[in-house]
Design goal:
Order of helices and strands: HHEEHE
Largest sheet: 3 strands, antiparallel
Distance between the termini: 54 Å
Helix content: 40-55%
Shape: flat
Number of helices: 3
Number of strands: 3
Length: about 130
């Protein structure tokens, strides 16, 4: 049976060799002007995409727009109910952790949060794109 440090040392050497091989391939690909152009375009598109989706999400939340439909598919503003709790929350709402399903059901049924719990909402968009 091998010593743990010998196994770990072998794994480290293997990873470092793989990283060196990857760096060599990356350097070779960087020499190709078409691939370099692809990488630059990919980076720009990813940045633009992230920026636009964040703007869409922010605008939908601020203007209470529930859904956008188009040839692209649908973008829906969804909302998730979360809970911030304190020690005052009755034990019936606990499993090993807070039973948020039971807590949410009680909140919906009674229309108010139990003592020791405060609802918080998370808004986010879902995309069903074609």
């Amino acid at each position: 049976m091998q010593d743990v440090s010998t196994i770990l040392t072998g794994q480290i050497v293997e990873v470092l060799e793989s990283e060196k091989k990857l760096a060599v391939v990356q350097d070779e690909l960087q020499m190709n002007p078409q691939f370099k152009k692809f990488l630059e375009l990919q980076k720009a598109v990813n940045e633009q995409s992230a920026k636009v989706w964040k703007q869409v999400e922010t605008a939908m939340i601020e203007n209470d727009v529930k859904q956008l439909k188009g040839d692209f598919g649908t973008v829906t503003l969804a909302e998730r109910l979360n809970w911030n709790t304190t020690d005052e929350l009755p034990s019936k709402f606990y499993k090993k952790v807070v039973d948020t399903t039971k807590l949410s059901a009680t909140f919906r049924l009674e229309g108010k949060a139990p003592k020791g719990a405060e609802p918080s909402y998370t808004k986010y968009i879902t995309k069903r794109l074609k």
